[in-house]
Amino acid sequence: MTALATAGTPAPPVRRPSATRGLVRTLLRLHRPALYAGAGLFVVLTALLLWLHGPAMDAAATAWRQYDRCREASCAYDQDAILTYKSVSQYATLAVTFVPFLVAAWAGASLTGREMETGTAQLSWTQSVSPARWLTVKLALPAVLVTAGTSLLVLLHQRTWRRSQGRIDTAKDWTDVLVFHANGPTTVAFALFGLAVGALTGLALRRSLAALALSVLCTAAVRVGTALAVPHLWPSVRTVSSLRHNGPTGLGLTVDEGLLTSTGGRLANPYCGSDLSTECRELYTRLHAVSFYNDSHPYSHYWPLQWVATGIVLALAALAVLAAFRLLTRQTGPTPEEARR
Question: Is-above-0.70 flag for pTM?
Answer without folding.
Answer: yes
